[in-house]
Design brief:
This protein is mainly alpha-helical. It is 68% helix and 0% strand. The protein has 8 helices and no strands.
Length: 224
C-alpha cells in the first residue's frame, strides 16, 4: 500500500513536487565506446565474454525513475485540482487526524501548528523574491514545520495501521488514480513501469548484498 502524507498533498504516491524538481534529470543514452563501435562494425568477430554490471543497471534504473517521477508529479498535481479529489483527500485527512488524536491527544497541538505553518509557507509564491529578512523568517518557519511533521510521522504511521484508515486510504487511492488517468491516459502505465523498475532495483540490490555485503556501497535510493 502506498503511504499517504497528511501534510504534503503531492506525496500521495511518494512523489513530492520538490523531489520531482530535484529528480528532473535528462537521461540520455551514453554514446558507444570505441570497443562497442568495433563490435557493432564486426558482428562476425569474436566477442569478449562480459558479465552484466548490476551497479550500472541500478544507476540506469534511478535515472528512469527520476523521469517517471517527474512526469507523475505533474499529472498528480493536475489531478488534485479536481473538486472530487480535493473533497476525497480532505475527508481522508480529517479521518486520519482524528485517529491520530485518539491515539495521542497531545498531537492536536502539533497538527494545528503544522496546518498554520503550511498555509503560511504556501502563501509565499516565490521565496527567491523575498528580502533577506523575509527569507530568514521563511526558513525558520520551514524548519519548525519540518520538525513538527517529523514528530507526527511515527503517530501517522501508527494511525495508518488502523483497518478503517487503511480502507479509507485505499478508497482515496482509487479516486486519485482514476483522476490521474483522466488527466493523462498514460498515468497507469507509468505507475506500472515505476513499480516494475523499483522491483528490479530491489532485486539487484539484494544481489549486490549477497555477492559482497561488506564491500559494495549502497546507492541512495529514494523512498518511493
Amino acid at each position: 500500500m502506498r503511504q499517504t502524507s497528511i501534510f504534503i498533498i503531492s506525496a500521495l504516491f511518494g512523489i513530492t513536487a520538490a523531489t520531482a524538481q530535484e529528480w528532473a534529470v535528462e537521461a540520455e543514452p551514453a554514446p558507444p565506446t570505441g570497443a562497442q563501435q568495433g563490435q557493432q562494425a564486426d558482428p562476425w568477430g569474436a566477442q569478449p565474454a562480459t558479465e552484466p554490471d548490476p551497479m550500472a543497471e541500478m544507476q540506469q534504473i534511478q535515472m528512469q525513475l527520476q523521469q517517471i517521477s517527474a512526469q507523475l508529479s505533474q499529472v498528480q498535481q493536475q489531478a488534485f485540482q479536481l473538486q472530487e479529489v480535493m473533497d476525497a483527500f480532505a475527508a481522508y485527512e480529517q479521518q486520519l487526524r482524528a485517529k491520530m488524536v485518539d491515539l495521542s491527544p497531545d498531537a492536536a497541538d502539533d497538527i494545528e501548528t503544522a496546518e498554520e505553518l503550511v498555509e503560511e509557507l504556501r502563501a509565499v509564491q516565490d521565496p527567491n523574491l523575498l528580502s533577506p529578512e523575509e527569507a530568514e523568517e521563511f526558513q525558520e518557519k520551514y524548519m519548525v514545520f519540518q520538525q513538527t511533521v517529523q514528530r507526527l510521522q511515527p503517530l501517522e504511521q501508527q494511525a495508518s495501521q488502523d483497518p478503517e484508515i487503511q480502507a479509507a486510504q485505499q478508497e482515496l487511492e482509487v479516486i486519485v488514480t482514476q483522476a490521474m488517468d483522466d488527466v493523462s491516459p498514460e498515468a497507469s502505465d507509468m505507475m506500472d513501469q515505476r513499480d516494475q523498475l523499483i522491483q528490479r532495483y530491489l532485486e539487484l540490490e539484494q544481489q549486490q548484498q549477497r555477492q559482497a555485503p561488506a564491500e559494495q556501497p549502497m546507492l541512495d535510493f529514494p523512498d518511493m
